[in-house]
């Protein structure tokens, strides 16, 4: 039997929970020391003992757990999960009916009513991401519920909850049939090779779909494109298909080169006409300045935190300097696609980073477009922090 306890919420947090805030934090609780076993069902009550919400205990970098229901009598059972999953799938009908896009998010954690869990769809296969030991204790009921509400070719999972918040190496296969990898998925008509069984990443970040499409449809034609922190080159592929004169992809990871070649190849693009460099991005900036290279379009989408031999990069601290490096090698009237997935600050602060960089460089700019998460990454209005993606198309004027 799953343990169930009642915890007392302080007055400040009470108002937040009443407004629909879904995250349970240590600071909100008067008696957090009662929490000993992840996966425990938690009834939240005010100091007078009045019920506020029901959730579960599962530690992740954001907090101590998530609210699942405001109904005192609702059991957190397989039936609850089936209803929650069905409602989420219903919201994505238009995605399932679109043959040009066969990879998207079908369940976005607290945005769909169950924080700590996301589920992505890849051409008939489902990939579950577990973000805490607590949510993983619901694994059997959630997988059974998913099996009852979808017709899956196969189900895979990623466990992302060791003590440092890192992915736990595993086989990752759960149920159904094993996929043959690479699995080719489509995104707005572009092919991408993905792997559901090969480490923490699949080969594509689904949250950037709208941004890649904008580059392909509006910004790439005839342009020279630099894609920094390029990973598997997805932005470069979108640009090439959009008619870019040439793309340059730069990433420090040795695997990025073969992965990028693969992404070009599954779209019938001759990768030898593109530049693919395994190199520290900061060293590349120095090299580009020395060679007086300039680009029409520069994509800046660094990880929130990265470390190389010479540099430690943290978005919250270092983005203005990164932006200055990009400005120096962008053509006049060129465009910088400034992106971050850091949840530790909002769009206003991010725009401040851009402002600071241009001011220090003595250059002028205008923001042409801005993007946040696409519609399949559902976000609750009561939890703005869930909308972590911030992307600005910045033109040098």
Automatic annotation (TrEMBL):
Coiled coil: none annotated. It comes from the Bacteria. Residues 172-376 form the S-adenosylmethionine-dependent methyltransferase domain. Pfam families: Methyltrans_SAM, PUA_3. CDD domains: PUA_RlmI, RlmI_M_like. GO terms for biological process: methylation. Keywords: Methyltransferase, S-adenosyl-L-methionine, Transferase. Residues 7-70 form the RlmI-like PUA domain. GO terms for molecular function: methyltransferase activity; RNA binding. The keyword Phosphoprotein does not apply. PANTHER family: RIBOSOMAL RNA LARGE SUBUNIT METHYLTRANSFERASE YWBD-RELATED, SAM-DEPENDENT METHYLTRANSFERASE. This is Class I SAM-dependent rRNA methyltransferase.
């Amino acid at each position: 039997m799953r343990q169930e306890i009642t915890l007392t919420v302080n007055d400040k947090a009470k108002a937040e929970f009443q407004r629909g805030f879904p995250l349970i934090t240590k600071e909100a609780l008067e008696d957090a020391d009662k929490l000993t076993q992840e996966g425990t069902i938690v009834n939240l009550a005010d100091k007078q003992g009045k019920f506020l919400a029901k959730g579960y205990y599962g530690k992740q970098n954001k907090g101590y757990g998530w609210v699942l229901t405001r109904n005192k009598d609702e059991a957190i059972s397989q039936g609850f999960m089936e209803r929650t999953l069905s409602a989420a799938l219903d919201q994505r009908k238009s995605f399932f009916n679109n043959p040009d896009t066969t990879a998207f998010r079908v369940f976005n954690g607290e945005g769909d009513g169950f924080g700590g869990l996301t589920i992505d769809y890849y051409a008939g296969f489902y990939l579950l991401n577990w973000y805490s030991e607590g949510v993983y204790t619901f694994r059997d009921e959630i997988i059974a519920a998913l099996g009852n509400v979808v017709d899956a070719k196969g189900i895979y999972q990623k466990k992302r909850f060791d003590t440092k918040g890192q992915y736990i190496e595993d086989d990752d296969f759960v149920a159904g049939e094993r996929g043959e990898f690479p699995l080719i998925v489509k995104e707005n008509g572009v092919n991408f090779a993905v792997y559901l069984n090969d480490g923490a990443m699949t080969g594509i970040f689904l949250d950037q779909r709208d941004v890649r499409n904008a580059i392909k449809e509006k910004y790439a034609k005839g342009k020279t494109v630099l894609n920094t922190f390029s990973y598997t080159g997805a932005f470069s592929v979108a640009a090439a298909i959009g008619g870019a004169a040439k793309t340059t992809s730069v990433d420090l990871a040795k695997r990025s080169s073969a992965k990028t070649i693969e992404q070009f190849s599954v779209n019938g693009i001759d990768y030898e006409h593109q530049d693919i460099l395994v190199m520290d991005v900061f060293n590349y900036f120095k090299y580009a300045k020395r060679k007086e290279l300039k680009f029409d379009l520069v994509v800046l989408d660094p990880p929130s935190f990265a470390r190389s031999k010479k540099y430690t990069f943290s978005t919250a601290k270092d983005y203005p300097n990164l932006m200055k490096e990009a400005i120096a090698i962008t053509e006049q009237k060129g465009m910088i696609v400034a992106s971050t997935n850091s949840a530790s600050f909002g769009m206003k602060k991010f725009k401040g980073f851009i402002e600071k960089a241009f001011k220090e460089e003595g250059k002028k700019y205008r923001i042409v477009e801005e993007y946040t998460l696409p519609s399949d990454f559902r976000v609750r209005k009561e939890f703005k922090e869930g909308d972590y993606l911030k992307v600005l198309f910045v033109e040098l004027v």
